[in-house]
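Worked example

This section walks through a single chain of length 204. The input is the sequence exactly as stored; nothing has been trimmed or padded.
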Amino acid sequence: MAKATEVPAEQVARLRGIITQYFSSRALYAAAALDVAGALAGGTGSALCSIVKATPGLRGVVFDLPHVGERARTFIAAQGLADRCEFAGGSFFESVPPGAGAYFMKHILHDWGDAECATILVACRKAMDASARLLICERIVPGGNEPSSAKLIDLHMMMTNHGGRERTEKEYRALLEAAGFELQRVLPTSTPWSVIEAMKAGER
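Given that input, the structure is written out below as tokens.
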């Protein structure tokens, strides 16, 4: 039996395809003039490289802790994207690289409590201009008593990760609003995850 935190490879691949398709649909960004996408805590950049490959003209910035840099640059070069993707080192608890049309976080906020999430989101907000979008990929806990993998993962997070947890749409909305964002929409996918889209509140 698979552990609660294990994710089937086919689900990961399907989610990556969905996100890539999202970025590739330029109509979604008619007001954003998207030319740079930033992946926060992006690891070696595998997800962002998939997005950049599928989106002509898009450049990418993989942002993660400095020690990841060598592996990320090696991976980016192996994908033939050294001229379109770069690595930036730092901590999203302090600051985030400015200037991207979209900022993307995958499975990040569920690792942290509300106070830490607020710090991350405020750093994102400071880096974003009025037309930029924040895309958050997380499980959404449904209301009521219906079965959900998000509820099982939430129990696991509470037992093994201090402060980390899965959240409802209402809870994500509250986190975003407290950090100065407006939740635009939640896009369900054919995987256990949804894409939460937000923009800076009151600046459009």
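What to look for: The domain at 9-200 is CATH 3.40.50.150 (Rossmann fold).
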